[in-house]
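About this split. The held-out portion is used to measure sequence recovery: a designer receives only the structure tokens and must propose an amino acid at every position. Recovery is the fraction of positions where the proposal matches the reference. Here is one held-out target exactly as it appears in the evaluation file.
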């Protein structure tokens, strides 16, 4: 043991106490976080010359059993191994297994908190009837795939192993690079009631007319993705992390009750078999129409609701180069369509909805589909598919290639039957259509790994949704997007970074949707500017359409195409839970001394005269007799002159000083500039550009924009020099609330009072009066209805 003298030990402790904290370099590169570039994924963020991806083509024959609410089918998958690896087995996604009674999703479910469960403060916090019904139903519903057979192309059984929501198929012969293999799967499952069990698909029952509406997705065993970053992406499906899939061609035949209308991914191949002559004529008319054409009318739908046609019809669809296939079926469907053609886009926009969706759906759905494609094309690439469909059913909002499921409907008054809808419902419909149709771009075409990174599709898509909503109408009531809308979340506790695996995200709506959207708006409007951002974002979309990007590919492309080092931005916004909180701590004003004694002594006198008059002098004034006033003979030179009197010596020194100065130095003395040292503190930890609104004495205002690199040497506190032509009377950091600053109360000099309201409530007396409550009249059903 080494011993130090007491004095030396104390000195060591003292030195340790005042040692500087480690320098937190907010602008260090992301080298330790991003993967090393390769010939597959380059340092620029573009696909490399060695980029590859797998392919899976599907032929599916399926039957909807409406009475049993079940589906059975057989499929043939042709899997193309475009990788440089030899594969001895394949992995298949069995997403319906999430509905098995012992699924991981069910067994790992938890309640948000004990307090929320037992001590709710009101209906908003409390446990709901439908939530408890869902919990109980999950324990009895007979869900999940029944795999009847898995066979090779010759009809021979293949060995499989099912691991919850994944199935491994062992190949008799290893699949070499460049080779392909075909195999078939026979399967069936029971369809869940979506409003009871939730999920991204299911059926909705209409008690009034005894009909069902089916929205069918994740409905067939699908190839798991195999790619250079993860190998097989076979992370279990727990419900939040969506899907990672391969592109391919689909040939799908769907056998449904003969009076059903079917909407699906792809183009209908046999309209003559399933549509009436009038419907086929309307469909052809819709392709060149200037407004939506009703293909299957409400009158036709209501007639179908009242009867049950015998037999079945088979609808056949084909889709090329898509990563998934979904469909919807019901005799309740009204169907409208309108063509949209511009540049390389030639699409038939369509909507399918029950009468319960009108008048809202007929007015807005297809219009919103077309608007989405027109706007998203501007920022990414031309929509490449031939159809785009919006379906109204039980699923609130979910996307698949060429088709999406959307929920909002008008409300029907139970007594009068009157249909009305709120502003929230109207704009909720438009927004969800924009969002879900927009998912065709991200991730249905820019094919990110949803099982790993929710923000790569939800965040980017929500950002483009925000831009499309802006283009719908002025003052569109947006629920997310503006940076100011995220501040409560940004300063909250128990956050996780955006770069958190999809299944581990807390506060999904904020983390995966709202925060990435706000971040990209800050990047576009405040950091890069629209021109640089839009060019870089479009470059990312163009580079990675029909390919599978990772976060690093997005980060690197945005930097590469904008010509801007953004590692500080990605680190702060995406890898930490820091927030923006910049405080304006203090301001000191300086003006340049002229050296002219006439000016300088007058300035010093003005400063002295501006000081508060002492309380003693205030009380003496007019009350205390002065001797020199009654005896003026006592006054001399110093009663007429003080320290501010300019002397000839002062003038001589000034003239001598000027003689030593060059002309440019003399001019500096006459500039009359006002210099301010402004102290800023970064209280939130997230570095940000400074947006300074400066107000001058004349009332003129202007904004100075200072890049975030102003924090590069001292990320916690900085002092900035601001030069003005006239006195500054006010300064505000982030005047437009564009940086998501979580405390605007410390953003101004001088400080501003923050307005608020105090609500007063009447005191309740005799609240718990058992006698009064006991004697209260018992209401009848008629009383309650009134």
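Reference sequence for scoring:
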């Amino acid at each position: 043991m080494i011993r130090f003298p007491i004095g030396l030990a104390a000195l060591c402790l003292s030195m340790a106490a005042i040692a500087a904290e480690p320098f937190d370099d907010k602008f260090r590169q992301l080298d330790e976080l991003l993967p090393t570039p390769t010939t597959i994924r380059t340092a620029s963020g573009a696909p490399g010359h060695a980029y590859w991806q797998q392919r899976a083509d599907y032929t599916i024959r399926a039957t909807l059993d409406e009475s049993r609410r079940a589906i059975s089918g057989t499929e043939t998958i042709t899997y193309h191994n475009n990788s440089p690896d030899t594969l001895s087995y394949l992995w298949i996604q069995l997403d319906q297994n999430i509905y098995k009674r012992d699924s991981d999703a069910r067994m790992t479910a938890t309640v948000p908190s004990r307090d929320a469960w037992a001590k709710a403060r009101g209906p908003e916090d409390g446990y709901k009837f439908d939530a408890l019904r869902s919990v109980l139903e999950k324990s009895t519903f007979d869900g999940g795939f029944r795999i009847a057979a898995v066979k090779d192309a010759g009809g021979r059984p293949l060995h499989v192993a099912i691991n919850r929501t994944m199935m491994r198929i062992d190949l008799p012969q290893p699949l070499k690079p460049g080779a392909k293999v075909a195999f078939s799967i026979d399967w069936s499952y029971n369809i869940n009631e979506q409003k009871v069990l939730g999920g991204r698909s299911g059926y909705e029952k209409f008690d009034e007319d005894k009909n069902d509406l089916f929205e069918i997705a994740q409905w067939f065993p699908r190839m798991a993705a195999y790619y250079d970053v993860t190998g097989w992406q076979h992370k279990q499906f727990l419900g939040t992390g969506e899907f990672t899939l391969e592109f391919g061609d689909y040939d799908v035949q769907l056998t449904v009750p003969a009076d059903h209308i079917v909407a699906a991914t792809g183009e209908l191949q046999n309209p003559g078999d399933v549509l009436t002559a009038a419907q086929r004529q309307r469909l052809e008319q819709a392709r060149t129409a200037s407004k939506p054409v009703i293909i299957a009318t409400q009158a036709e739908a209501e007639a179908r609701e009242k009867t049950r046609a015998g037999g079945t019809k088979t609808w056949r669809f084909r889709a090329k180069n898509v990563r998934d296939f979904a469909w919807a079926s019901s005799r309740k469907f009204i169907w409208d369509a309108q063509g949209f053609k511009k540049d390389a886009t030639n699409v038939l926009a369509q909507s399918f909805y029950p009468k319960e969706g009108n008048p809202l759906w007929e007015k807005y759905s297809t219009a919103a589909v077309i608007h989405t494609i027109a706007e998203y094309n501007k920022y990414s690439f031309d929509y490449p598919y031939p159809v785009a469909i919006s379906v109204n059913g039980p699923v609130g909002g979910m996307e698949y290639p060429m088709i999406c499921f959307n929920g909002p409907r008008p409300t029907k008054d139970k007594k009068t039957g009157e249909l009305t809808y709120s502003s929230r419902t109207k704009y909720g419909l438009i927004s969800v259509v924009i969002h879900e149709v927009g998912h065709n771009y991200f991730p249905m075409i820019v094919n990110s790994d949803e099982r790993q990174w929710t923000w790569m599709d939800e965040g980017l898509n929500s950002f483009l949704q925000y831009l499309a909503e802006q283009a719908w109408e002025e003052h569109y009531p947006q629920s997310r997007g503006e940076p100011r809308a995220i501040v409560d979340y940004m300063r909250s506790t128990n956050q996780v970074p955006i770069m958190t695996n999809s299944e581990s995200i807390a506060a999904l709506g904020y983390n995966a949707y709202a925060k990435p959207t706000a971040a990209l708006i800050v990047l576009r409007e405040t950091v890069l500017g629209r021109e640089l951002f839009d060019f870089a974002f479009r470059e990312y979309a163009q580079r990675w359409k029909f390919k599978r990007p990772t976060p690093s590919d997005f980060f690197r492309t945005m930097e590469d195409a904008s010509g801007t080092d953004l590692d500080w931005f990605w680190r702060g916004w995406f890898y930490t839970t820091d927030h923006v909180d910049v405080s304006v701590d203090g301001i000191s004003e300086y003006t340049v001394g002229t050296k002219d004694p006439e000016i300088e002594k007058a300035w010093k006198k003005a400063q002295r005269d501006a000081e508060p008059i002492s309380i003693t002098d205030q009380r003496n004034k007019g009350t205390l007799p002065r001797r020199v006033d009654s005896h003026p003979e006592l006054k001399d030179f110093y009663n007429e002159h003080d320290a501010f009197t300019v002397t000839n010596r002062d003038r001589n020194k000034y003239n001598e000083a000027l003689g030593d100065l060059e002309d440019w130095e003399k001019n500096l003395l006459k500039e009359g500039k006002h210099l301010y040292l402004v102290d800023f503190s970064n209280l939130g930890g997230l570095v940000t550009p400074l947006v300074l609104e400066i107000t001058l004495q004349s009332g003129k205002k202007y904004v100075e924009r200072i890049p975030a690199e102003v924090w590069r040497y001292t990320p916690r506190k900085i002092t900035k020099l601001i030069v003005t032509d006239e006195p500054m009377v006010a300064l505000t950091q982030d005047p437009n609330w564009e940086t998501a600053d979580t405390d605007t109360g410390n953003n101004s000099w001088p400080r501003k009072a923050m307005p608020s309201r105090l609500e007063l409530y009447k005191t309740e007396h005799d609240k718990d009066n058992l006698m009064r409550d006991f004697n209260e009249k018992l209401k009848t059903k008629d009383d309650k209805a009134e």
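Annotator remark: The radius of gyration is 36 Å.
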